[in-house]
Automatic annotation (TrEMBL), chain A:
It holds the Pfam family FAD_binding_5. Keywords: FAD, Flavoprotein, Oxidoreductase. GO terms for molecular function: FAD binding; oxidoreductase activity. Signal peptide: none annotated. PANTHER family: XANTHINE DEHYDROGENASE SUBUNIT C-RELATED. It comes from the Bacteria. Residues 1-177 form the FAD-binding PCMH-type domain. This is Carbon-monoxide dehydrogenase medium subunit. SUPFAM superfamilies: CO dehydrogenase flavoprotein C-terminal domain-like, FAD-binding/transporter-associated domain-like.
UniProtKB/TrEMBL annotation, chain B:
This is Carbon-monoxide dehydrogenase small subunit. InterPro entries: 2Fe-2S-bd (IPR002888), 2Fe-2S-bd_dom_sf (IPR036884), 2Fe-2S_ferredoxin-like_sf (IPR036010), 2Fe-2S_ferredoxin-type (IPR001041), 2Fe2S_fd_BS (IPR006058), Beta-grasp_dom_sf (IPR012675), Diverse_Oxidoreductases (IPR051452). Keywords: 2Fe-2S, Iron, Iron-sulfur, Metal-binding, Oxidoreductase. The lineage of its organism: Bacteria, Pseudomonadati, Pseudomonadota, Alphaproteobacteria, Rhodobacterales. SUPFAM superfamilies: 2Fe-2S ferredoxin-like (SSF54292), CO dehydrogenase ISP C-domain like (SSF47741). It comes from the Bacteria. PANTHER family: OXIDOREDUCTASE WITH IRON-SULFUR SUBUNIT (PTHR44379), XANTHINE DEHYDROGENASE IRON-SULFUR-BINDING SUBUNIT XDHC-RELATED (PTHR44379:SF8).
Length: 277, 166
């Protein structure tokens, strides 16, 4: 089908984008890479949107070294994250995640900010951000604020972003010496959204485990994390299966997703064992 | 407000090496702009939601979905389609290999396949069959069963690597 659009404006800079968004009001929609939004427009899942195109805001694109963390501009494209030497060195999970997202042509235009703001419960980057303890910088006409990943994802496609706010950057703490970070998922075909997936980190003996496609939003599996910290792998898998309530849909049943969660945890843990303690 | 958010957008871009200026409806996809407004009917519109790859064209050096980009967003961009890539000869060896190995039947998927395959072969000197499969997983072919396409891309990658080594 063809998109039905209420109007379009190309923002010159962030201030201009925020002003456009405020004038557009309720119908205003930020357009970044368009890899989810244009698909939704084409399918008429949404119509009449007034598009504020931020894709040319160069200041929001690219990765900077901010000392203890990396500052990743919201408009940095998936492919650029996979190729970036700072990301590969200090947040390797993000680079690995890119290989699991969609297909090359979609990774060439989709942006990390778009993936975070879209908040698809099956998407990789939101779960990575949660596992890595990332924070999001957002900007509105009343000024900037910072939202931790743990407070950002509210429900399926729902976030803490207020109307008129634009996500400008993702702040990711750098991996510690000998920190291990892995992402594992199962999808039916290469490039499909995951049926189930998880992100696991281990920093100085402490684990963080974030799940995707296993609930309405990315979530930390706190009981499984505690069991992993205690070195109890069997306990961790059991705790994980007990603490999730995955959905059943045409792709997979809840029981199958719960089974996959246990399998993926074992795979991820085995990879981490391979690294330094 | 309609002044700030027009329904018709002026764009200036380069298509297959030639400067193009046009006024496009705000919701026009790049693929429809290329096909219907410029008459470049090589790349196709299939699913129109990013899944089939028939609309794949090159924008600013990278493959993109023509159905997931608005023509308005192509302002200032450099766009290449299968027509332009054929004319410059850049993909001549891929095209020959596709014909030689029966890697196309109806040809609906082929322009998108060629753009995707060229991006892979130009960036990875000796892709494995696995890598070729992974890269082309975003391009559906309802006719060939894929094996011949993988063969063609692999043969070209090997020939180019051999040529470069000599
Ligand atoms: C066939 C297909 C398969 C895919 N598979 C996967 C997959 O396996 N995993 C995955 O994670 N993704 C997948 N995607 C989605 C892809 O990763 C998108 O790029 C991503 O979800 C959205 O990024 P975008 O820049 O394209 O955002 P857009 O499509 O431009 O925007 C998406 C939403 O976020 C809002 N938004 C965008 N940027 C901002 C911002 N800076 N501030 C505030 N709001 C903003 C928009 O208003 C819109 O509501 C797939 C897409 C397709 C078409
Ligand atoms: S028409 Fe664009 S991917 Fe199918
Ligand atoms: S040759 Fe017919 S779809 Fe590929």
């Amino acid at each position: 089908m063809k998109a039905s659009v209420g109007g379009y404006a190309r923002a010159r800079d962030l201030r201009h984008a925020l002003e456009l968004l405020s004038v557009a009001g309720e119908a205003g929609r930020v357009l970044a890479g368009g890899q989810s939004l244009v698909a939704a427009l084409n399918m008429r899942l949404t119509a009449g949107d007034i598009l504020v195109d931020i894709s040319a805001l160069g200041a929001c694109r690219g990765v900077d070294d901010a000392g203890d963390s990396l500052r990743i501009g919201a408009l940095t494209r998936h492919v650029e994250i996979a190729e970036d030497p700072l990301v590969r060195a200090h947040a390797p999970m993000l680079a690995e995640a890119v290989g699991l997202i969609a297909h090359a042509a979609i990774r060439n235009r989709g942006t990390i900010g778009g993936a975070i703001a879209h908040a698809d419960p099956a998407a990789e980057f939101p779960a990575c951000a949660l596992a890595l303890g990332a924070e999001f910088e957002v900007e509105s006409l009343s000024g900037p604020r910072t939202i931790p990943a743990a407070a950002f994802f509210r429900d399926t496609f729902e976030t803490a972003l207020a109307p008129g706010e634009i996500l400008t950057a993702v702040i990711v703490p750098k991996a510690a010496e000998a920190e291990a970070q892995v992402i594992e998922e199962v999808a039916r075909r290469c490039g499909d959204y995951a049926l189930a997936g998880l992100c696991l980190t281990r920093r100085a003996g402490r684990h963080r485990l974030a799940l995707f496609s296993l609930g309405p939003r990315p979530m930390l599996a706190e009981r499984a994390m505690a069991a992993l910290d205690a070195g109890d792998m069997a306990g961790a898998a059991a705790a994980l299966k007990a603490e999730i309530d995955p959905p059943s849909d045409t792709q997979a049943s809840a029981a199958y997703r719960r089974h996959l969660a246990g399998v993926l945890l074992r795979r991820a843990a085995a990879r981490i064992e391979g690294g330094a303690a | 407000m309609t002044d700030m958010f027009p329904q018709q957008i002026d764009v200036a871009l380069s298509v297959n090496g030639e400067a193009v200026e046009a006024r496009v409806p705000a919701g026009r996809h790049l693929i429809d702009f290329l096909r219907l407004d410029l008459g470049l009917t090589g790349a196709h519109a299939g699913c129109e939601h990013g899944v089939c790859g028939a609309c794949t064209v090159r924008v600013d050096g990278r493959s993109v979905r023509g159905c997931l980009m608005l023509a308005a967003q192509a302002h200032g961009a450099e766009v290449w389609t299968v027509e332009g890539l054929s004319e410059t000869g850049e993909i001549a060896d891929l095209q020959e290999a596709f014909v030689a190995r029966n890697a196309l039947q109806c040809g609906f998927c082929t322009p998108g396949m060629l753009v995707a395959a060229q991006e892979l072969v130009a960036s990875a000197p000796a892709p494995t069959r696995e890598q070729i499969r992974e890269r082309l997983s975003g391009n559906y072919c309802r006719c060939t069963g894929y094996e011949a396409i993988i063969d063609a891309v692999e043969a070209v990658a090997q020939a180019r690597a051999g040529g470069a080594a000599r």
